[in-house]
Amino acid sequence: MKVNSDYILKHALDSDILVNIKNNGNFIIKLNDTSRDIFNYVSEGKSKEEIIELLLKDYDVNKETLIKDTESFIKEMIEKKIFFND
Amino acid sequence: MTSKDTLKQILRLYLKDEKSSFSDINDKELFWLANALNVSAIAAYVLNDNGYKSDIASKCIYKAISNYERLKEARSNIEELFNENSIKYLNIKGSSIAKYYKEPYLRYSSDIDIVVEKRDYDKALDLMTNTLGYANKQSALHEITLVNKEGINVDFHSNFLLDQDKYEEVFNNQFNENHEFNDNYKYLFHLVHGAMHLIRGQMELRYFIDLFYLRKNVDRLAIKEEINKLDLSSFDNAVNSYLDSLLDFKDYSEKDKEIDDFIFNYAKDEGASNRVLNNSDNKISYFFSHAFPPFSIMKGKYPILKKCPILLPIMYIVRLFKVLFSRRRQYVINEIKESVKNNNSNIIEDLGLSTYNK
């Protein structure tokens, strides 16, 4: 999985946001801590399984819920063409 | 408090790293003004930092981040290519100043400015067009403006100072491995650039934010001679005095007030010359800005309007006929130059810039 290079992660206005640099700032996605970490892990080239493993170490949450949320976020990002499969 | 006063207060808070509370702000008017003077991202940043939430402010920040990052990416591609091909170049203006700001995206730049050493210029231009896909775009104010398919504009210079050949020698031999001026020359270039903008009738508050950062690092004694060579002693004193007043370090002098009026009148005229010279995406507003320029331009062209503004509609008709039967673009450019000269001759003289006003 890779990140579309049109998108960058920035911290502004007290939030982590994804900015499309080709779109004049008109397309912004606010990220919570977990989705920001997922974005960073995908940028580093980690697989879905590796990401889940890392998140389980970082967050004290139910494993099934985390897997479900991670998959759902990745699916959404792929639909929005922010992530794409190799 | 007027939007003008609010904006000045915001800039003071930003520069002095102070806090305040805001209420009863006319967001639309404030950001229109801030935008005209190229400080809208700073205004948004300060308001947010002081707990004032606003949709316009958020949009300004997002736009500024997006703009900064896309220019940064384009600049990085150009630099990589130039470095691979041993091109001698300097990044000037925004890209060399943004790093001093609290966040680099707060320093708005509409384009990338690069000076390439003369002997490398053709080769560099060839790389820009054939390797990076930039195309030449007509520009009245710059030597060559290149544009890529994503709309990134690059002002591509072989001279440091357009139309001011006699001052050019001050900046020659400043190419270096950092690809930007050292602190002293950055300050000098900022001065001369400001002077050239003022001659064209442009002066923005962004200029003074840059000045605030650049003057911190300058060794004034070391560049005294160069400032004299550039005929900028009075201008140097005047812009620094205005900045001190803006920062509340002292009361506004008569000259400070003159600069203040000039800046905010420029904002009011919506940067008339820029608006007409830069092709707007909005074709309707582009048409109207050509057909019916602001009163400031018209009174410069037709001084009778200063006495009888009621004649404005007639003068629009007279002008329309002249434009139709002339080389239109050149006519509009000359008209702006003429009006700027007529309208701003006092401040140009007061700030000691007569030698620039050719």
Features:
heterodimer, A: 86 residues, alpha+beta, two-stranded antiparallel ribbon, 45% helix, globular, B: 358 residues, 5-stranded mixed β-sheet, 5 strands
Description:
The complex is a heterodimer of chains A (86) and B (358). Chain A has 86 residues and is an alpha+beta fold. Chain A has 3 helices and 5 strands. In chain A, strand 2 and strand 3 form a beta hairpin. Chain B is mostly helical. Chain B has 18 helices and 5 strands. In chain B, strand 3 and strand 4 form a beta hairpin. The longest helix of chain B has 30 residues. Chain B is globular and about 60 Å long. In chain B, 38% of the residues are buried. Classes of the chains: A alpha+beta (86), B mainly alpha (358). Chains A and B meet through strand 2 and strand 3 of A and helix 4 of B.
Question: What is the count of β-strands of chain B?
Answer: 5
Largest sheet of chain A at a glance? 3 strands, antiparallel
Number of helices of chain A: 3
Radius of gyration of chain A: 13 Å
Which H/E pattern describes the elements of chain A? EEEEHHHE
**Helix-strand pattern of chain B, N to C?**
HHHHEHEHEEEHHHHHHHHHHHH
Helices and strands in order:
The complex is a heterodimer of chains A (86) and B (358).
Chain A: E1 2-3, E2 7-12, E3 15-20, E4 28-31, H1 33-43, H2 48-58, H3 63-79, E5 83-84
Antiparallel strand pairs in A: 1-5, 2-3, 3-4
Chain B: H1 3-16, H2 27-36, H3 40-49, H4 55-84, E1 89-92, H5 94-97, E2 112-116, H6 121-131, E3 135-137, E4 145-147, E5 153-157, H7 165-168, H8 183-199, H9 205-217, H10 220-229, H11 233-246, H12 254-268, H13 272-277, H14 283-291, H15 295-301, H16 304-307, H17 312-324, H18 328-350
Parallel strand pairs in B: 2-5
Antiparallel strand pairs in B: 1-2, 3-4, 4-5
